[in-house]
Design a protein that fits this description.
single chain, mainly beta, Immunoglobulin-like, 3 domains, 16-stranded antiparallel beta sheet, five-stranded mixed beta sheet, 12% helix, globular
């Protein structure tokens, strides 16, 4: 895509004759015309990139969840799941174990473990600096249950409690040096109480919404690793997915008016959104598909050629999210309502009856 139409050898001379307002309008038009000539002939959804993590109590890592007596105390565990009178085993605040002064020996909450998947540049940057995935650490500042209102901040359905923690921040570190930071997105914690007469078979997991981190590194090595991480993301957002948080027999914490417990992150990962992997092929769009108008407002017109029989149409944004996914059956043309899409660049993916996928970019005005 041309970032500056005036730098193009053909478009530049045309733009010189326009005033600033006209140039902006015409530049967008020329970009769309150019995009209609260069197409992407094959498209597929990439796998989610993952960075496995865990936080084990023996390493002074994991989660601290707590209440403050006389201030913020989470709701009682609903009967009959509050075994042994332990009504507040799950708490109002939630953070990694290195938060504040809870554990003087804790320097982080979780660390990378296992094998990176879909982070080739990060892997290379770590290796080049004699680091491994285990040098990647994750920290979470405290989030909380908000108003702690049943139905809004938490709920219980058939022995499974769901909780929504909000607020706080997170950081991805190289050992103790910050690489990336971001506002902590909503964390949904799920607690399956299982048997009613014991807390030791409770199963807990959690997953955050997606967010885009920013680079906060301050020196050469950290900058190199942070930039490699962001380059691998390629505009995709990330989330924390804790598939196993171990509450059974957790170590209790009590100091002054603060009481809570330490929990292990036994299994989890940093994971990305999916993205669209493309192979660039120089072909004429009119050989198989034509999109119009040049600037789309409410309706995207798609005209098929070259005997294509389309059976599905998808609209995907630049972050890899599928916003429209519709079954069709057409060999000539369709009109797709896109008025609800925000202004910006999108991909139109057409799947034919042979399973082949074609794509073309368009701009929603």
């Amino acid at each position: 895509m041309i970032k500056n139409a005036t730098s193009h050898p053909i478009l530049g001379r045309a733009c010189e004759r326009l005033n600033s307002k006209q140039m902006k309008q015409k530049s967008i038009y020329f970009i769309v015309v150019l995009l209609s000539i260069t197409t992407i002939a094959s498209v597929s959804a990439t796998s989610v990139s993952t960075l496995p993590i865990k936080g084990i109590e023996s390493d002074h890592q994991g989660i601290i969840a707590w209440n403050v007596q006389g201030s913020k105390v989470g709701h009682a565990i609903p009967a009959p799941y509050n075994a042994f009178g332990n009504s507040y085993a799950y708490y109002y605040y939630f953070a990694t174990r290195d938060k504040g002064t809870f554990d003087a020996n804790a320097v982080t909450g979780m660390h990378g473990t296992g094998v990176l998947s879909g982070f080739p540049k990060l892997d290379s940057a770590l290796t080049a600096n004699s680091k491994t995935i285990s040098d990647i650490n994750i920290r979470m500042e405290s989030c909380n249950l908000g108003n702690d209102t049943k139905g809004a901040d938490w709920d219980l359905v058939a022995g499974v409690e769901s909780r929504k923690y909000t607020g706080g921040t997170y950081a991805i570190l190289l050992n103790s040096d910050t690489l990336l930071t971001g506002a902590m997105p909503q964390l949904q914690l799920t607690i399956n109480y299982n048997a009613t007469n014991t807390p030791y078979d409770d199963q807990t997991s959690g997953i955050t919404d997606y967010s885009m981190p920013v680079i906060s590194a301050t020196n050469g090595v950290e900058n190199q690793v942070a930039n490699a991480f962001m380059s691998d993301l390629a505009g995709r957002k990330i989330r924390l997915n804790f598939t196993s948080i171990q509450p059974a027999g957790q170590t209790e914490y009590l100091s002054g008016n603060i009481f809570g417990g330490f929990f292990e992150i036994q299994q989890g990962q940093i994971e990305t959104e999916t993205a669209i992997a493309t192979t660039q092929v120089q072909v004429e769009n009119q050989n198989w598909m034509h999109l119009f108008p040049s600037l789309v407002q409410n309706e995207l017109h798609i005209q098929f050629q070259k005997n294509i029989i389309a059976n599905k149409i998808s609209i995907v944004n630049t972050e890899g999210k599928t916003l429209i996914d519709k079954a069709i059956m057409s060999s000539e043309s369709i009109i797709l309502p896109v008025g609800t899409l925000k202004s910006g660049l999108y991909f139109c993916l057409i799947t034919d009856n042979n399973g082949q996928v074609f794509t073309q970019r368009f701009i929603k005005e």
